[in-house]
Amino acid sequence: MIDTLAARIRQTIDAKTKPLGSLGQIETLAETIALLQETTEPTMRNCTLVIFAADHGIALEGVSAFPQVVTGQMVLTFLSGGAAANVFATVNGVTLKVVDSGVAGKPMSHPQLIDRRLGAGTASFLTGPAMSAAQAQLALDHGAACAREAEGDALAFGEMGIANTATASALAHKLTGLPLADLIGRGTGLDDAGVQRKLAILTRAVARTGALTPQEAMAEYGGFEINMIAGAMLETARQRRVVIVDGFIATAAAVLATKLEPESRSAMVFAHHSHEAGHTALLNVLDAKPLLALDMRLGEGTGALLAWPLLKAAAAMMTDMASFEAAGVSNKD
């Protein structure tokens, strides 16, 4: 059935009033959406961005240019509507939700804040596991629950957490075997000396363990928010909804998701090519071609929000654009 459906989808795209392949990645995107929804008339009516926020014990080792307190401050900024993610979500008609996955300090209270808190941040994985195996599994479960509760033909997942690029680098290294040096970048704005210090600290941290299963890796080196994003991606894929993957950290979560359930890859659309070092390597692992390249590295789901209009356009091309036959336009054949 799938082969027949795939042929009908391709035939529908090729029959539109355009030269074959002339819409480039939009055609590929339309095909991905149509295959996922199992129809030649896909819909992309609405989207929700869920931002998961958590802190990381590795931040205390000096791998970030900003202190942990910034995570909680940014959560409040999201809730008040003042962040880049809020602006991009509003202009593109995307619903935005914020989840406390484990922000440092006392629990925050806000009527719009979703509480999926697993603690006041992870432990430092320099000296021991970031979290217990039970917490790692609970993070996946919480992420899946957040996906089930979010409306949309497509879901995007953002993150906030000081030192989460360090966590993503260490986790991705353990999941893929890629050299750690290829996965480490400036994060929140480290200078050259800071990047070298980050590499040295993470090199010591990953040497603490040998080969790990994905389940072991996400407990040893994961973040509460990264693991929740992976769980949310898995649930979204199971529901045959589109997963819009943001930048480096979200892509590290996507690597984790595909290691746990390889079939989830077919639901993923990659929004943009992050300027953060390491993103290219992870995109290559996933054989992913992002839609945009804007030299962004903010996170928060901002790249995913900018890609959302392209998904709407791709679906509309399938349903609203005339075929040669319907329009009475002569094809070259």
From TrEMBL:
MF-aspect GO terms: nicotinate-nucleotide-dimethylbenzimidazole phosphoribosyltransferase activity
Any one Pfam family match given in the protein's UniProt record, by short name: DBI_PRT
Pathway the protein acts in: Nucleoside biosynthesis; alpha-ribazole biosynthesis; alpha-ribazole from 5,6-dimethylbenzimidazole: step 1/2
InterPro entries in UniProt: Nict_dMeBzImd_PRibTrfase (IPR003200), Nict_dMeBzImd_PRibTrfase_bact (IPR017846), Nict_dMeBzImd_PRibTrfase_N (IPR023195), Nict_dMeBzImd_PRibTrfase_sf (IPR036087)
Keywords carried by this UniProt record: Cobalamin biosynthesis, Glycosyltransferase, Transferase
Top-level taxon: Bacteria
Catalytic activity: 5,6-dimethylbenzimidazole + nicotinate beta-D-ribonucleotide = alpha-ribazole 5'-phosphate + nicotinate + H(+)
CDD domains linked: DMB-PRT_CobT
Enzyme Commission (EC) number: 2.4.2.21
Family membership: Belongs to the CobT family.
PANTHER family documented for this protein: NICOTINATE-NUCLEOTIDE--DIMETHYLBENZIMIDAZOLE PHOSPHORIBOSYLTRANSFERASE (PTHR43463:SF1)
Function: Catalyzes the synthesis of alpha-ribazole-5'-phosphate from nicotinate mononucleotide (NAMN) and 5,6-dimethylbenzimidazole (DMB).
Protein name: Nicotinate-nucleotide--dimethylbenzimidazole phosphoribosyltransferase
Lineage, opening ranks: Bacteria, Pseudomonadati, Pseudomonadota, Alphaproteobacteria, Rhodobacterales
